[in-house]
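Researcher: We're teaching a course module on how sequence relates to structure. For the next exercise, students receive a sequence and then see the predicted structure as tokens, so they can try to spot secondary structure elements on their own. Here is the exercise chain.
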Amino acid sequence: MPSDDLPFANRTALVTGATEGIGHQTALRLALGGARVIVHGPTTDSSEAAVERLVAAGAPATGLEILAADFAHLGQVRDLAAQLTDRHQRLDLLLLNAGIGGPERRTLTEEGNELCFQVNYLAPYLLTRLLERPLARGADSRIVALSSSLHRTANIDWTDLTRAKRYSRISAYGQSKLALTTFVTELARWLPEGHTAISAHPGVAETAIRPLYGTSGLPAAEVAETVLTLCSPTTQVVNGAYYDRLTPAAPGAQVAEKRSVDRLLKLSEKLVQRVSQPV
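Model: And here is the predicted structure for the students to work with:
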């Protein structure tokens, strides 16, 4: 097949949360587009099952590999990053897709973080920081973080980050996506020339998170097409921008507040440093 028909040829992509929904459908399209896709799931079994489905859908088995880590355990995130760095000198695309809507009741991780905040923000934050070297070795690496339109009406509660006083799924979810959008916007300033980082609300898909939006959702495959376009090296993007589908849009006000940005970054480093190094 001509290389023009394989827009992701010779590119290595890590897709977090690739076992179902938008992540799975995007992983399929990346693989069909010629990428070497690292399929991430919370467990080895779920990742292996996802790869079987991808191959059954036409993805070349030789272009797929597995890495597993439960984002509710930050030590596993460190292990994942170490394994990827050992296997690959270069990472061209990091798609931060893995996320949860949050449980009905407030839940803390073993590190003491609110579950949604850790899975949707702290784990992607830590993973991205640990993968800085392989990402920097490419000529035009791209980081795409799946945010949410709900971040725009959310706030980071600095006095009650774990939502002990007042918890709701939507407030926890919005807070986590606001933090993710803020980090990616700031991250873009640090990247080497030619590298890009964006956050995006690609549309509401018919997944487990859809009820938070109070609306019907689109098929995950349809939303994945938007994500794929944003991931493509041929798509020019505004570095650091927040996208509503394929259009740059104004993010939540807190994203641009320097005091909030600085506070979030300092807090994030403190929270991930609680995690012991892998044995």
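Model: If you want an answer key for the exercise: Residues 92 and 125 are 17 Å apart (CA to CA). The first helix runs from residue 21 to 32.
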